[in-house]
Amino acid sequence: MKRGLFFAIAGLIALMFLPVVQGQVTDIDGNEYPTVVIGTQEWMAENLRTSRLNDSTPIPDITDNMAWYEAHAMAMCWYNNDSAGHHLPYGRLYNGYVAELPTICPKGWTIPTTQDWDLMINYLGGSEVAGGKLKDTGFDYWEPPNTGATNSSGFTALPAGFRSHLDGTFNYKGQRAGWFVRQPGSGLSFRFVSWSMESSGSGPVHMPMGLSIRCFRQTTSIEKSGTNSPEINLYPVPAKEHLNVYLEVMPQQVTLFRISNLAGKTLLLITLTDQTTSLDIGHLPSGIYMAEVLRENESILRRKIVILP
Hints:
By secondary structure, this protein is of the alpha+beta class.
């Protein structure tokens, strides 16, 4: 009995963390990118390397350090101006004037907002561990120790480095990967992972900074039912001691969260009143359960979760 439960849990955990490769997307230059589904989002699994916006506008390629620093318009480059060594697998670096344009990604795709990025990080278990799940493994690209790298998300982050906003020089190849994200309303910041950390980090953007770009699009989650439901995330998965419920939109109607056993018996039922609710599940035995979010007696999310010993 216990052995059977162990293998059932192990199998479900493996399915939860197996990257789901969705397909590919092509930019206006004809570059093809594999994609991966993480939660309810589909991400490019490589950094952008287009030389044009999706309306065919060319992006200036600036190689001179001072010209890069002094540019007050969009610019792109290869790390160390070496296209042969960086076209694949690292992609191009772009400045902030490119990243703020809605036409930089292939049509139907976009640069993530801070909220989009944080949804992915939360899905992967939070910022303390998500960096390792984003990073490619081994030392072919990352310098040692490449702390915590598993690439269990399939995101395959590579250390493409940065171009300095201070003097246009190149830094951190092999050590850091950084991507632009858009702030709510307007403005930019960036997210990064490092060779020496399992966590993921963030920082402010200066427009001459040269960083990588990852495009994404929202997908329809197979875990949702009903219509017009807000984005909902449960993390970490699998869970131990605590489970967090995140609602992108604060509920206007009474919203309930329920955990049941697989026979349908309700074991936990609460009303969600905050955007993020942390639940104590330490009293539940390890095993497989059904988690459900309900609004007006309609199930808007229903999924299996694993609770670890």
